Amino acid sequence: MSLLDALPDDQRKRAHPAAQPQWFPPMLATLTDRRFSDPDWIFERKFDGERCLAFRRVGETRLLSRNRLRVDDHYPEVAEALTNQDATGFIVDGEVVAFEGGRTSFARLQRRMHVGDPDAARRTGVAVYCYLFDLL
Asked: Which of 7, 48, 49, 85 is 20 to 30 A from residue 15's alpha carbon, by CA?
């Protein structure tokens, strides 16, 4: 199933498939001195985790940090969950996090971040979650 198949007819006629890029730079936060508030906007809370872009193609899911480092082996359950999706090709941008109680904890996530063996990563006992916020 292609993501294009889910579009309304008029939009699908204008869209066309293209080769998936090897990399797509994530949108990063912009530092500003000005405060912004608007009742028509919804603001997401800051997750204290690791930025993660997932590139899914038929037969392969690659997880990359914002520095373009492969992190599939650090978070094999995330790669597996994305591989099991019905869509055969997509790029998503999100944040991998671990929780300490009800809050995200970067210190807890660090116990997984540098474990390069998928089996060892799972054995750490640190559950990870991937919050997706951009579907590219």
From this structure: 85
Q: Is residue 39 part of a domain?
A: no
Report the distance separating Cα 107 and Cα 125, nearest Å.
14
CATH code of the domain in which 52 resides: 3.30.470.30
Per residue in 32-74, pLDDT (tens digit) is 888 888 889 887 677 899 999 999 988 789 999 999 999 999 9
Q: Is the pTM of this model over 0.85?
A: no
Residue 2 within a domain? no
Report the domain count for the chain.
Answer: 1
Q: Label residues 57-82 b or e (16+ Cβ within 10 Å = b).
A: eeeebbbbbeeeeebbebbbebbeeb
Q: Residue 108's beta-bridge partner residues?
A: none
